[in-house]
Design goal:
Chain A is α/β, with parallel strands linked by helices and 119 residues long. Chain A contains four helices and five strands. Chain A has a five-stranded parallel β-sheet with strand order 4-3-2-1-5. Helix content of chain B is 34%, strand content 21%. In chain B, helix 2 links the parallel strand 2 and strand 3. The chains are: A alpha/beta (119), B alpha/beta (117).
């Protein structure tokens, strides 16, 4: 069985290092011939929001990096429908074409993976 | 079962480092194997050999103890640079290496557990 990793991103884009480190981990392991899929839920959906400008925090916009995912062969990106709606976001507000999925579908996605990395 | 572990928390601020250690001890006691432990983000600070908590459990010694058992324990090199954890500061049986080690643990592990705040 191929090693298939789900990266679960649940934390807001700024305020902690977790989403940025999740991005680094994802880029790092994707080059080692692991299948990686990304799941954004809870405050983590904000990581994909367009138009981020964290310059006042001396940070770089996280969304820009995620927009280039296909360059490292990551094509499966899922976003939790309710988390998106709770924050007034729609798929058009995201930096990349993500598939909007229900909590039940996320359960199936995680079950299809050999391991889950939570950030 | 072969179990991989990632730890994102530093020592003492949250429960993560203690839980990771207790989890690994319990897993070993039940006859499981540990594919490896990847110390990521603040997790690298658990490998600081100068940790010296008066009258309390020494978290760095705990990871050193696991490393001495032959469990691969790897602290992320880049995270260590961000936090000034130079090679001569870390405990002996924790290695500094990159995300390739995490990828390797993920490949070997039947289950993978993340400890984080």
């Amino acid at each position: 069985m191929n090693t298939r990793i789900a990266m679960l991103m649940r934390k807001a884009p700024y305020g902690s290092v977790y989403p940025a480190e999740g991005f680094r981990a994802m880029m790092g392991i994707a080059v080692f011939e692991l299948d990686v899929c990304l799941v954004f839920m809870d405050a983590g959906v904000g990581v994909l929001a367009k138009g981020q400008d964290p310059s006042a925090l001396d940070m770089k916009p996280l969304g820009d990096g995620f927009a280039a995912l296909s360059d490292v062969g990551i094509t499966e990106v899922y976003v939790h429908d309710e988390s998106l709606a709770e924050r007034g976001l729609s798929p058009e507000d995201l930096v990349l074409p993500a598939r909007v999925v229900s909590a039940a579908e996320i359960t199936e996605i995680l079950e299809s993976c050999t391991s889950v990395l939570s950030f | 079962m072969n179990i991989g572990v990632m730890l994102l928390d530093g020592p003492y601020q949250h429960q993560g480092a203690d839980s990771a250690y207790q989890f690994i001890k319990a897993a070993l006691a039940r006859g499981h194997q540990i594919a490896g432990v990847f110390l990521f983000a603040d997790g690298v600070n658990n490998a600081n050999q100068f940790i010296s908590p008066p009258g309390e459990r020494n978290i760095a010694e705990r990871f050193e103890e696991l490393g001495k058992l032959g469990i691969p324990i790897v602290a992320c090199t880049a995270c260590a640079k961000f936090r000034g954890l130079r090679p001569n500061i870390k405990v002996e049986h924790v290695q500094l290496s990159g995300l390739g080690s995490l990828a390797e643990f993920l490949k070997q592990a039947d289950r993978f557990v993340t400890f984080s705040a």
